[in-house]
Amino acid sequence: MSIQTFGSPDGLAVVDLPVPAPAAGQVLVTTEAVGVGGVDTLIRSGALAAYGFKEGHIPGGEVAGTVTAVGDGVDPSWLGRRVWAFTGTGGGYAEQAVVPVEQVLLLPDGLSSAAAVTLGSAGAVAHFGLRHARFAPGETVLVRGAAGGIGIMAVQLAARGGAAAVAVTTSSPERGERLRRLGATHVLNRSGGRGDGASGRDGAHERGRAPESGGAPERDGTPAGYDVIIDVVAGADMPSFFDRLNPNGRMVAVGAVAGQPPADFGTRIMTEFRKSLSFAAFSAATVAPAALRAVRAEQFAAAARGEIAAVVHELLPLDHAVLAHRKMDAGEVFGRIVLAPRGAGAASAERRKAS
């Protein structure tokens, strides 16, 4: 699947290309599952064209499948092994993908290809995003935009890490209940206030002010403020969430699915100078490869043991990528959509929908 025209999902189209040959240090993976990420939709829309992406680009950053060829200098024992592979900023929406061998990780027995591409990138971002925020047991955490792959993993990891409370923002009560089953303790609407989720309202925001942080908990036990905010959303509303940080609170942006925040968002921190608030952006590109591999291997093993959940929203054929992107753009996805080339064995055996 290639981006023939930037803009709507209809710009994606099937293209026939020769089977790629792995160069020295690379392997060829015959894909069984392809993860559909938020960055794929941004690239497809043209929002990242300034970073060098051009029409004709094949999106997709992670795949899982079987190694069917190796390049020079690669141990031939990789042949026939089930693996997860990081394809970078593109190349994954394909029946075969070439990947540097150092970006390939063996999959444990009991972990499906669909689960692997749901966890591989998102789990590492959530893990190191919490570390970047210096999260410690006993602290309160808010995950903004918790219904996607990164958010769901951040909820689970914060809960497993001993958070005193794990609050989430989401768009509906139904999603809130699913997040509670994954470890969330409090469900907020998209503006960060209490409410039904879908309406995006709460009393404080209807009166045009943000709930104050650092005070006593609300009557229902919802924290008045948070020590850590993991923000997957960014966008125009991001600065208002600084008001929800406790003194010495830290916000870490791990995504920007709603676009860039306002250019002057830092002024909100300076107006609360006495609270010593911190903001940081985080990208997994800054993590040492060995550390990424270790965390991914640990998370894959935990998922195979049933200790963490890989939430697959839907499994679709690879040539239904247009539909997958429409669902992403409409905000319909809870977890991750996975694409599977027609006839792919392990992934096509997955349930059509999983929770």
UniProtKB/TrEMBL annotation:
Transmembrane segments: none annotated. The lineage of its organism: Bacteria, Bacillati, Actinomycetota, Actinomycetes, Kitasatosporales. One of its GO terms (molecular function) is oxidoreductase activity. Pfam families: ADH_N, ADH_zinc_N. This is Zinc-binding dehydrogenase. Residues 7-339 form the Enoyl reductase (ER) domain. Residues 184-223 are annotated as: Disordered. Gene3D superfamilies: Medium-chain alcohol dehydrogenases, catalytic domain, NAD(P)-binding Rossmann-like Domain. Keywords: NADP.
